[in-house]
């Protein structure tokens, strides 16, 4: 339980941490930096314990629009490592309220407070300023306040104006907020199976050398199940009942399908993870989710909105000669089977076409960074099938 006085204290503490003004003067947050188009504010709400995790842990690196912020409660219970989460706020006018709600979410949930550091970014006001004045809406952790806050998150998420979601800026900013040597970067809607970090930890030091990433099979499961599948056999039982599929199975076909799934399902279950198979980039549009060292290429921030925003990084891994080692016994699930309607496809078509153009430029820009012609031919051959 967080008492009102403590909550106010945490707001004040935040201001003291981020600026030199005494608490009594007009509160300002000075450490938001205008970088390019956005005001970036790292660790606006830091995790409470700084010594709970080691450098050798895996940070769950995630970003989300505000309506998904309450999902942090699930992650903080499932993920046995630190979490670094970025939220995009599409108008500076929403910043004070959003921060007070994020503080309620963080301060009222011991698991989130312990594990999660939160970062935000937002467009500056019209005079280029990142300034905002604090606004305190909620001051206690009773159930009603928390439910109200969850509702307000969804209203704050409604776009103020149509602008494509700067997804790769969000991903990179969350990643810069991670302090560990290893990362798992995934959308907030993808929930890991329990004990993930412990199952994978013994593999990290030996497998992640030599330009390898550890691929985490990703799935979507029917909405409204009473519990998440905790292990592969529970997940397989769902798959056989038509209640679990590869992630985005009905949306982008093979983009998340693992090779040799028939074997993966029946290989040893429970216990530690191990490498199930080692493959190069195998298929057009294959965009696996993976655990990596913190030195993999960043996402290209020109990609905004739907289309190519993730595949561009995987393509770069291919050009950089990375190998993909597929993990056993660990996975992530999306709790809804996602199908886009014709109208929804029509809405994202402009973003797809814009991002396709950016991708063609991006691809050629890599030629000087990775001049190996043989590798380029291989990666392009895979990529070209997609363009047909
Ligand atoms: C910019 O605008 C904000 C309000 O949006 C105001 O508080 C601030 O003083 C302005 N800054 C400058 C440098 O004009
Ligand atoms: C990593 O690469 C080096 C040099 O290419 C090689 O000697 C070593 O065996 C490789 N290690 C692993 C774990 O593959
Ligand atoms: C897998 O999880 C289910 C519950 O979801 C449990 O009943 C079963 O014992 C678990 N199997 C193994 C091998 O851990």
UniProtKB/TrEMBL annotation:
<keyword id="KW-0812">Transmembrane</keyword>
<keyword id="KW-1133">Transmembrane helix</keyword>
<dbReference type="GO" id="GO:0035269">
    <property type="term" value="P:protein O-linked glycosylation via mannose"/>
</dbReference>
<keyword id="KW-0735">Signal-anchor</keyword>
<keyword id="KW-0464">Manganese</keyword>
<protein>
    <recommendedName>
        <fullName>Beta-1,4-glucuronyltransferase 1</fullName>
    </recommendedName>
</protein>
<keyword id="KW-0732">Signal</keyword>
<feature type="signal peptide">
    <location>
        <begin position="1"/>
        <end position="25"/>
    </location>
</feature>
<keyword id="KW-0325">Glycoprotein</keyword>
<keyword id="KW-0333">Golgi apparatus</keyword>
<keyword id="KW-0472">Membrane</keyword>
<dbReference type="Pfam" id="PF13896">
    <property type="entry name" value="Glyco_transf_49"/>
</dbReference>
<dbReference type="GO" id="GO:0015020">
    <property type="term" value="F:glucuronosyltransferase activity"/>
</dbReference>
<comment type="similarity">
    <text>Belongs to the glycosyltransferase 49 family.</text>
</comment>
<keyword id="KW-0808">Transferase</keyword>
<keyword id="KW-0479">Metal-binding</keyword>
<dbReference type="InterPro" id="IPR043189">
    <property type="entry name" value="B4GAT1"/>
</dbReference>
<dbReference type="GO" id="GO:0046872">
    <property type="term" value="F:metal ion binding"/>
</dbReference>
<keyword id="KW-0328">Glycosyltransferase</keyword>
<comment type="pathway">
    <text>Protein modification; protein glycosylation.</text>
</comment>
<dbReference type="GO" id="GO:0000139">
    <property type="term" value="C:Golgi membrane"/>
</dbReference>
């Amino acid at each position: 339980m967080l008492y009102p006085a403590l909550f106010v204290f945490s707001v004040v503490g935040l201001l003291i941490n981020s600026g030199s003004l005494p608490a009594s003067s007009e509160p300002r947050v000075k450490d938001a930096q205008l970088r390019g188009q956005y005001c970036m504010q790292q660790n606006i709400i830091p995790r409470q314990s700084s010594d709970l995790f080691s450098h050798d842990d895996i940070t769950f690196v995630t970003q989300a629009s505000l309506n998904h912020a309450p999902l942090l409660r699930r992650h903080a219970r499932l993920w046995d490592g630190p979490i670094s989460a970025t939220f995009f706020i599409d108008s500076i006018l929403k910043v004070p309220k959003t921060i007070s709600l994020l503080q309620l979410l963080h301060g009222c949930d011991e698991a989130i407070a312990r594990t999660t550091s939160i970062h935000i970014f937002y467009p500056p006001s019209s005079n280029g300023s990142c300034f905002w004045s604090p606004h305190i809406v909620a001051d206690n952790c009773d159930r009603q306040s928390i439910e109200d806050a969850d509702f307000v998150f969804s209203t704050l998420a409604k776009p103020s104006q149509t602008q494509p979601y700067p997804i790769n800026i969000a991903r990179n900013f969350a990643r810069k907020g991670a302090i560990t040597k290893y990362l798992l970067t995934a959308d907030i809607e993808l929930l890991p199976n329990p004990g993930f970090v412990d199952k994978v930890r013994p593999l990290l030091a030996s497998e992640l050398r030599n330009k390898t990433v550890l691929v985490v099979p990703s799935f979507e499961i029917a909405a409204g199940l009473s519990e998440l599948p905790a292990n592969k056999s529970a997940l397989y039982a769902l798959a056989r009942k038509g209640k679990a599929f590869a992630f985005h199975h009905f949306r982008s076909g093979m983009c998340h399908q693992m090779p040799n799934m028939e074997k993966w399902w029946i290989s040893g279950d429970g216990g530690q993870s191990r490498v199930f198979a080692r493959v190069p980039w195998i298929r057009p549009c294959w965009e696996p989710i993976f655990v990596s060292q913190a030195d993999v290429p960043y996402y290209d921030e020109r990609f905004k909105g739907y289309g190519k925003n993730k595949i561009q990084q995987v393509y770069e891994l291919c050009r950089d000669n990375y190998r993909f080692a597929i993990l056993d016994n660990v996975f992530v699930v999306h709790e809804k089977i996602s199908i886009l309607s014709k109208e929804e496809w029509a809405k994202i078509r402009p973003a797809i076409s814009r991002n396709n153009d950016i991708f063609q430029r991006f691809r050629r820009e890599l030629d000087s960074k990775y001049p190996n012609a043989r590798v380029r031919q291989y990666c392009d051959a895979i990529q070209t099938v997609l363009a047909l």
